[in-house]
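Box 4.2: Ligand-aware structure prediction
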Amino acid sequence: MIIGNTKLTSNKILAPMAEITDYSFRTIAKKFGCGLTYTQMVSAEGIIKNNFDTLRMCAFSRAEKPIGVQLLGKDPAIVGRAVKELVRFKPDVIDLNCGCPVDKVYGKKMGAYILSQPDNLGKLVKEMVKNSEGIPISVKVRLGHKKKINVIENAKIIEDNGASIITIHARSRSDRYSIDPNWDWIAKVKDTVKIKVIGNGSIFNATDAEEMVNKTSCDGVLIARGALGNPFIFKDKNYLPELDEIYTTALEHTELLQKEQDVRIHLDRAKKNIIWYFKYLNGIENLISELYSATCFEKLKEIIYNHKNRLLENYYPQSDTEDIRKQFNNKVLFWLAKKEDKIIE
Ligand SMILES: Cc1cc2nc3c(=O)[nH]c(=O)nc-3n(C[C@H](O)[C@H](O)[C@H](O)COP(=O)(O)O)c2cc1C
């Protein structure tokens, strides 16, 4: 897939994920073959106000390219100015979030709210394109609202106003992860527009990715939950890493986070990633409770080293992997879910 002047080495793309797709996560994904990564969503207003946290969330290094920055905003003038600021750093794509369903975003008329505002959607895209100095603009959408699926209309608006890419998470605003995505809509959009179409929704291995391309003819696939603790998904073929590779990758990821300056944030983030790496192996409950009490990076590294050795010695009883898989697919922070709300995202 080619975007702008850049030919991606793979059509598998890392999805934007809040508080997850930071420098460390993106670096590991790229190492395993990911063709394009995204920052998490960042506030357009935060960018134009030079908000420190916002700028940190969308900072990236040259070595990470190709990379996309995702913006959250509703006011075309503000989003346009944010694009102008970003252009200086030469990201390869600038994306607009029109899919976030959570109340604190939707309630402010941003994210998926924009799906029901065709006029504003058009103005937002136009303003982004006007200020982007040729950097491709993309828009990430959901299908619409349950009662009004309007992804085809929105795709035309996005194309007509000059965007180069549309990314479709094939669920409606209110669909939880327990509802299967409807990939047929990706195929219908691909039949309708000439711009690049990236499909998204429940890709958990290389076979799923191939299947989405075959069924929808999309140009690329965007992977979110399937990449958590599993950068191996970006390899060409289905690939089951040995324990040693899981361990060294979890350690490398933890050390990249350790280099960051905000120890409080990054220690919690490292714990989250470590749990994802080991989630389908025995002893995960034990690992989770040990990680909870750790207060420094050195302790985290000691815990995963010991955990790996116990796994090698078959120390733990057999886990119910299917149950963990179900819990994870419905709620990525599955270890925080109470028994009764396991399946609520
Ligand atoms: C923890 C988490 C954080 C997310 N944050 C963002 C975000 O910042 N921007 C965005 O457009 N989508 C976000 N998403 C949605 C994903 O990018 C993706 O569209 C969705 O999870 C469906 O893909 P999947 O089935 O591969 O998980 C997030 C998803 C998860 C699980």
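In the box above, the bound molecule is flavin mononucleotide. Residues 15-18, 20, 40-41, 70, 97, 99-100, 140, 169, 200-203, 223-226, 332 surround flavin mononucleotide (CB under 6 Å).
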